[in-house]
Amino acid sequence: MTASTWPNQECPVYVASLMPGQAQRIVQIMRADGTLTEPEGCRNAHELARLVHHERPDVDLADPAQTYWVDRPGQWPAA
Fold this sequence. Notes:
The model has no long low-confidence stretch (mean pLDDT 91). The chain has one domain (3-69). It has a four-stranded mixed beta sheet with strand order 3-2-1-4, with helices on one face. The protein is built from one helix and four strands; from the N terminus they run βββαβ. The longest helix is centred in the middle third of the chain and has 11 residues, at 45-55. It is of the alpha+beta class. Helices cover 14% and strands 18% of the residues.
C-alpha cells in the first residue's frame, strides 16, 4: 500500500483482515510526516499497541477514527 492508496488519510493505523490459518494480522501505520511503515505482523493487541506507540504515540487505538480494521475489530488469531 502507498500513501496515495491509503484507505483513509485521517486514520493513521491500518489493520488488515483476520485470515484463517495465519498467526498474525498485518499492520501498517502512517507516520505524522505522511510516510508509511513497512507492513508488520502483530499476533495480539499488546504487539499492536507497542508498534503503534513506537511509530505514533499520539494515536488512541480505542478511537475508531484513528484505527481502521478491515474486519473483526479487536479480534486476533487464536494462539
